[in-house]
Amino acid sequence: MCRHLAFLGPEERLGRLLVDPAHSLFRQSWAPRRQQHGTVNADGFGVGWYAEGDPVPARYRRTGPIWGDRSFADLARVVRSGALLAAVRDATVASADGEAAAAPFAAGPWLFSHNGAVAGWPGSLAPLARTLPAEDLLSMEARCDSALVWALVLNRLRGGDEEGQALADTVLDVAAAAPGSRLNLLLTNGEVIAATAWGDTLWYLTEPGRRTVVASEPYDDDPHWQEVPDRTLLAASRTDVLLTPLKDVEEHLASVPPKEPST
Fold it and tell me: In sequence order, which residues have a C-beta less than 8 Å from that of residue 145 and are 6 or more positions away?
């Protein structure tokens, strides 16, 4: 159910990160090595990247497979960036949303991707959807599970949560509402990366003080890649990576005070 990657570091050509490596995201669109659900990621793709001095990222997204887009190959050959987020998609449920359902989703300085699926979609998340402002629901780019998860994350970010906290709390809420969901989330603002491992693979590669890559799976055989344990929050910058276990859903639910009965 999708593969994704985020990068922070010195400026690189998009192609050097997404196309050139032996097991790049480009290749993972048809031959992933560690994907646990689904086999081909041909239902769209996207890349978002930051230009120096501009906090709002650019995006390039398409409905079809990444290998069939000649314009992307040209773009990846010449565009350079020191921060990006990219994804290739295997749709959970066929829909008419097309390009709008392809990650990365974006708002302000943020780029977001979801690798996984929400169990019982859409009914399971109806209670959480009702917690969002109506304007947020009406302005969702797509009607897929990932778009609603993004709306939940974005609502927390706009409320002042830091990136890692917004992801962690959203994962716990969604997992409680829809047990069995796979919720590997990836978020960046061009300066930090936050990610969750919840039901699928997640890895990172870092050169402290220089560059950090966070990805669904390694894009090469560098022995320095490290796997993130399941049920873990990752918070990274160009200088370090911090892993924090996500508390059990049961503990999370126990900490939530009961709702007052309606009158």
Answer: 92, 114, 117, 118, 121, 122, 125
